Amino acid sequence: MTHSVLNNCPLNTTESGSSLTITNGIVFKDLPLQDASEQASAQDWVPVTIDQIGSGTYAGHYQELNLPGIKMVIERQNCTVHKRGIMDEKYCTLSYVRGTIDAARVSEHQASHKALFLIPAGTEVDVQVGSEAETVYFRFDQEHFQQQAMIIDPERWEGSYDPELMCFETLGQAQLDQNINQLLRHFSAGKPYLTGDGMERYITDNLMLMLQSSQPLSTLPFSTIDTRRRAAHLVHHVSAYLESVPNAQSCPGIIDLCRETGVSERTLQYSFKAQLGLTPNTYLRIFRLNRVRKLLRNPSHATVTVTEAAMRWHFWHLGRFSRDYAALFGESPSITLRNALG
């Protein structure tokens, strides 16, 4: 896997491996992760849910550089995850995926080594990232982003633009990584040659030049893109609906999903296979397993049991539940709970 541009930063680590470095008002967070839910919690500026959908014992890393007007994030994990939410009404992001990206997808678009994604404010976030891929994104105030983009290319960015996710083809990612890596080597050595404002401008200028030289990426007919976009929205709709379900008393099945979305089971099957490579039933099971894991990792009381958590999410056959849980997360549910209770 391609190494993070931040990997060269020597940091003051704690016993847990986490670190927080502040230099000239610039905040840099470096967090090891043990669960997909921790990956979601780290991104506290946007309400997002991340579920593990690929098998294995999860291990991840989250790095965040906070500048006066930009937040840069690099996240990676060793298991395939499904990330979804809605962008804040104030912020937009520019992002790309690197490493082995065959399983990476951003909404209706499959990731590539040339793809740069603009996710406007208020847009649905639906991302699937494989085990050997790394996500890099830059968060801007949307008004500030548009002002900067108009300076570089006023014809493209003047006025309002499509509120849907936009995908561009660019050749500038390697140069951007190299420039940021050079800047961060000085920063991590305690000798930043730029102030926070200067570093922000440096990164912004690099991003805008890369965006200016890019072209809208549309290698597929509009009808195909539109079909994929509808599938992405449908999967997001189902995910949001499931998130609203509090417990087993209203844990939905396929009929409930068809009723909620207003589509047939066949359409539901197609959309989930196209977006996640999973059937709706498999997705439902994985969703419920992730919810049980959340309960076991954060027990509400010291006497909570695996059986209690499993049955809350409609796992009635406990032997089969334990096998499915271990197959997905790489450990038994009893070990998860034991570790949580210390």
From TrEMBL:
Q: Coiled-coil regions in this chain?
A: none
Q: Which residues does the UniProt record annotate as the domain HTH araC/xylS-type?
A: 236-339
| Matching InterPro entries | AraC_XylS_family_regulators (IPR050204), HTH_AraC (IPR018060)
Provide this UniProt record's keywords sorted from A to Z: DNA-binding, Transcription, Transcription regulation
SMART domains to which the protein is assigned, alphabetical: HTH_ARAC (SM00342)
Q: Which PANTHER family match?
A: HTH-TYPE DNA-BINDING TRANSCRIPTIONAL ACTIVATOR EUTR, HTH-TYPE TRANSCRIPTIONAL ACTIVATOR RHAS-RELATED
- The name this protein goes by in its record: Helix-turn-helix domain-containing protein
Query: Which lineage ranks, top first, belong to the organism behind this chain?
Result: Bacteria, Pseudomonadati, Pseudomonadota, Gammaproteobacteria, Oceanospirillales
